[in-house]
C-alpha cells in the first residue's frame, strides 16, 4: 500500500530505522490502530464516509470512466453504447449530488444523540 510504503521509507531514510520485518509489523499495526481509534471515536463516521464517498466514489466509478470511453471510442450518437454510457453519466452525477445530501441530513438529524466512543 502506498501509505505504508511512504511511511516506512520516511522512517528508514529520515529517522534512520533499519528496514526489517519488525519495523513493518510495528509501523503498520500502529497505523491501523490509530485509524481504528479515529473511526471509533467519531460517532458519525459512517455518515461522514457517505458524505465524502458521494464526492469520490460516484465520479471515479460511474461517470468519469464513461466520459473517457466516449472521448476515446467516439461511438455513433444515439447508438446503444452511447445511450448506456450517458445513462451511467446521468445516474453517477445524480448519486454524486444526492449521496452527500442524504449523509449530511443524517448527521444533522442525529447530532443531538451523538456521544464520542459510542
TrEMBL record:
One of its GO terms (molecular function) is symporter activity. The keyword Transmembrane applies. Residues 1-104 form the Amino acid transporter transmembrane domain. Keywords: Amino-acid transport, Auxin signaling pathway, Cell membrane, Membrane, Symport, Transmembrane, Transmembrane helix, Transport. It is found in: Cell membrane; Endomembrane system. GO terms for cellular component: endomembrane system; plasma membrane. It is a multi-pass membrane protein. Carrier protein involved in proton-driven auxin influx. Mediates the formation of auxin gradient from developing leaves (site of auxin biosynthesis) to tips by contributing to the loading of auxin in vascular tissues and facilitating acropetal (base to tip) auxin transport within inner tissues of the root apex, and basipetal (tip to base) auxin transport within outer tissues of the root apex. May be involved in lateral roots and nodules formation. This is Putative amino acid transporter, transmembrane domain-containing protein.
Amino acid at each position: 500500500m502506498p501509505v505504508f510504503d511512504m511511511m516506512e521509507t520516511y522512517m528508514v531514510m529520515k529517522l534512520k530505522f533499519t528496514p526489517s520485518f519488525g519495523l513493518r509489523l510495528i509501523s503498520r499495526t500502529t497505523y491501523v490502530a490509530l485509524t481504528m481509534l479515529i473511526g471509533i471515536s467519531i460517532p458519525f463516521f459512517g455518515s461522514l464516509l457517505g458524505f465524502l464517498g458521494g464526492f469520490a466514489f460516484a465520479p471515479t466509478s460511474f461517470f468519469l470512466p464513461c466520459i473517457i470511453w466516449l472521448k476515446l471510442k467516439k461511438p455513433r450518437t444515439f447508438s446503444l453504447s452511447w445511450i448506456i454510457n450517458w445513462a451511467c453519466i446521468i445516474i453517477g452525477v445524480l448519486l454524486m449530488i444526492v449521496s452527500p445530501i442524504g449523509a449530511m441530513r443524517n448527521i444533522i438529524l442525529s447530532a443531538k444523540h451523538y456521544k464520542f466512543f459510542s
